[in-house]
Amino acid sequence: MYTIHSQKVENNEHLILENASKTSKVIISLQEGARIASLIFEGKTIIKEVHDFSYADSYAASILFPFVSRIENGKYQFDGKNYQLDCNQAGINALHGLVYNKTFSIVNQEITDENAAVTMSYKENNPPKGFPFTYELQLTYTLSEKGLSIHIKATNLDEVSFPFTVGWHPYFYTNHLQDAVVKFNSHQQVAFDEKLITKELIPFKNEGDFTIKNKQLDDCFVMNDDTIEFITPEYQLKITSDVAQNYLQMYTPPHKTLIAIEPMTGISNSFNNQIGLQVLAPSETYEITWNLSII
């Protein structure tokens, strides 16, 4: 039987999903946008907190909503109106959405012999001027013997439509990053300017192994399908999406045995370049599931 229990860590509440043998465990930080602070699967460390790499700097495993990556200078136009987001990236750009530091509430828990699942919710009832729309974001994490699934459900609570993209920002840990490979299928790469704002899409071909060795990554790719694989000497994992159009952002922080492998539905500056941008009408919902299978 799986278990779910909570634990206070300083001023934060952690929710812990664990299997009966205690070899698989996920820790969720409710006050930090319901992000995954730790993931151990069958004794292997997949996601962990790293010294000298705080969440304020890393946004590690945060859910990105209502926009992924960056919005140039925090400015965009929608439905004929101009908006200004707070530029939380050193006053340069708006970065990684608006829910990464919000407190989520538990709305449902389910425990069986096969899995443990928890659903958490954040309702934006006091929106900022830069995104003056009300919405509810529900996250459901399910831990099972297959791995972890993340289901996101966004509901427009407002009387008008709003633009959005959504993503997930996990850093995967391995002691052998230089020997690891990422497998994905892509035909286009995003060309960035010096502020990591999208300039254009350029030709790129990858149909198999993408080696990490000797690469310093901060790159984004247009996916041809819904599958990303990460293969290390310690474990192998596969991320799949249930939506048609997918993008992949990868980032290797300097001097860390970590790699961010981020599935997304849009790219940098989507609110302005429209790439991957979607619009959610009043009372409508959008749902996406990422399945993380681990071997």
Automatic annotation (TrEMBL):
Q: Which InterPro entries match?
A: Aldose_1/G6P_1-epimerase, Gal_mutarotase_sf_dom, GH-type_carb-bd
Question: Mind listing the GO biological process terms from this record?
Answer: galactose catabolic process via UDP-galactose, Leloir pathway; glucose metabolic process
Keywords, A to Z, come to: Calcium
Q: Which CDD domains match?
A: Aldose_epim
Entry's Gene Ontology molecular function annotations: aldose 1-epimerase activity; carbohydrate binding
Cofactor needs: Ca(2+)
Calcium is among the record's keywords = yes
Which PANTHER family does this entry report, sorted A to Z? ALDOSE-1-EPIMERASE, GALACTOSE MUTAROTASE
- Assembly, per entry: Monomer.
Q: What's the protein name?
A: Aldose epimerase
